[in-house]
Amino acid sequence: MSSFSLPLHPLTSYGWDDAWADEFAPYDAEGLLAGRVIRVDRGQCDVVTADGVMRADTSFVTPNDPLRVVCTGDWVAVEPTGNPRYVRTYLPRRTAFVRSTSSKRSEGQILAANVDYAVVAVSLAVELDLGRVERFLALAWESGAQPVVVLTKADLVPDPATLGHLVEDTGTTAPGVPVLPVSANTGEGLDVLEAVLSGGTTVLLGQSGAGKSTLANALLGEDVMEVQTTRDVDGKGRHTTTTRNLLALPGGGVLIDTPGLRGVGLWDAETGVGQVFAEIEQLATHCRFHDCAHTAEPGCAVLAAVDSGTLPERRLDSYRKLLRENQRIVAKTDARLRAEIRKDWKRKGAEGRAAMEAKRGRR
């Protein structure tokens, strides 16, 4: 039996379990050390192992694919000796949080691996941007993690009725997702959040100024993450956190804090978008045409729901926007889909020209 499958292993608090032990068994036989990446920085990473935290070189695992580089949250096999020590490989990821970069090359960027919960921090110090919440949730669902929306700075909304409405409004954009109002200053809601996150790996996401670092410090029970004030004009903050760090929570589980994300681009997240807009996907099953685009087709159940007021038009607009964006990203790397999109454009162009000709003929 591998020594890593014994109970109370030093890495248990970082998420090590029997399934990881089985995956690691071949590398254990080679004398390599198991560890979890807690920070990555320019070809180097910090890895926590049974022998403590060590610095390791990741150049041995540097493929051309940016989604296959070593990242925070990975379980890796590290050489036990050497200067430098090298990460030889990482174990197959259970989940991965990926977004598209701002690069025109349409590359994906992996933010965290082997995550159980994706906490989307949303500040109540500014007006709720439900579209941005939906965007974060699409990426969270696509990663394979369970999303949780945390409305931070809840103490800035002293009226319980108003706070209740904000929670309700957010809940309508997040079907199947817990929405928790939390204040790091007063401690409101922290006990509930700690109970939800205990025993798993959590990635903390949100814009700069959303209060992620303050929330992380509250969950960790000490001031580990640097905190800066937000601008009074728009409630936005500067990038307090500049790297992704994995830290053990005192109540169990681990937390990966991430830098504030100005851009949250989708990356092949069609399934995630479908889960965020589950009610629209369900309505679509009752449309007359199976390929209904929910624009002007007869017998469209989605448009009927908008007309009746049961589906907010904002939700449908957001759904269309995210699907279009995701399709553009996928098309840049999928030749077959590009061809299908061009064919669809030509069809719509022909239909438009035919409609114009018919209109001229009636004059």
Question: Can you tell me about this structure?
Answer:
The chain has helices spanning 18-29, 130-143, 160-172, 190-197, 212-220, 270-276, 278-284, 301-308, 313-331, 335-362, and strands at 33-41, 44-49, 52-57, 75-78, 87-90, 96-100, 108-113, 117-123, 146-152, 179-181, 201-205, 245-248, 254-257. With 363 residues, the protein is of the alpha/beta class. The chain folds into three domains: 3-92, OB fold (Dihydrolipoamide Acetyltransferase, E2P) (Beta Barrel), CATH 2.40.50.140; 97-257, P-loop containing nucleotide triphosphate hydrolases (Rossmann fold, 3-Layer(aba) Sandwich), CATH 3.40.50.300; 270-362, Ribonucleotide Reductase Protein R1, domain 1. Strand 8 (117-123), helix 2 (130-143) and strand 9 (146-152) form a beta-alpha-beta unit. The radius of gyration is 23 Å and the shape is globular.
Shape: globular
Largest sheet entry: 6 strands, mixed
CATH-scheme architecture of the largest domain = 3-Layer(aba) Sandwich
Beta-strand percent range: 15-25%
CATH class wording of the largest domain: Alpha Beta
Q: Within the largest sheet, what's the order of strands?
A: 10-9-8-11-13-12
Map the helices and strands.
Layout: H1 18-29, E1 33-41, E2 44-49, E3 52-57, E4 75-78, E5 87-90, E6 96-100, E7 108-113, E8 117-123, H2 130-143, E9 146-152, H3 160-172, E10 179-181, H4 190-197, E11 201-205, H5 212-220, E12 245-248, E13 254-257, H6 270-276, H7 278-284, H8 301-308, H9 313-331, H10 335-362
Parallel strand pairs: 8-9, 8-11, 9-10, 11-13
Antiparallel strand pairs: 1-2, 1-4, 2-3, 4-5, 6-7, 12-13
